[in-house]
Amino acid sequence: MEAYLSRLYVDDDDPSLKQELTPTPSPSPAPDLWERISSEASFSSVAVQVFKDNRSIKSGSGIILSADGLIIVPADLTALGGIYQILYEDKVAKGIIVSFDIKRNLAIIKIINPEFDLNVSSLNTNLVYQSGQDVLIAGKLADRLEPVAISQRGIISYVSGDNIILDTFTNSSLVGSKVLNSRGELVGALYIRGGKSYVISSKDIDAFFKEYLNKTQ
After folding, report:
1. Quick one: which of 61, 93, 151, 214 has the fewest CB in 10 Å?
2. What CATH code would you report for 45-120?
3. With a threshold of 0.90, does the pTM exceed it?
4. Strand 134-143 vs strand 106-111: parallel, antiparallel, or unpaired?
């Protein structure tokens, strides 16, 4: 399977990064299409770092859901007593957890007093998920104090109810990244369990976000 990363290299021969999944592949869009989708997706993504006891303990990506600084991340990317640092373009800000749902594996981070404009990601709740569907995993990686775009190809391997499993290289740097279809629509957000890559659907993200907004209005 073809895979690429923007400004980040992954060794395709490393057996620790591979999974034994056998999806039925669909025709793949041209590479330049994926590059365009990756570039567009980066505008509404942030890099997230979690610190505790003066050291970084977790890192991944977040998806921007509001211009005033609400970021969606997998709950796996949070930590009790953690301090959250958000990197967006050339800006660095602190954030706090304002909502948490362990069942959906989702959390919302609120950027404290954002002094910069944020591009908001669109949510599509009417997508059909099919085995063999090509996807792009795209997010941001914290490189010192600079967010670096990172992306990787994958295929939807298995869909059962709320479970969406990907056939892709298992890369913990991509946790929280967007999973996008060939039309650039948000399929969901990536998380990893048991060495496999899963997707939190855009439908679940939308429902969780609306519940939070209803509580705070």
Report:
1. 214
2. 2.40.10.10
3. no
4. unpaired
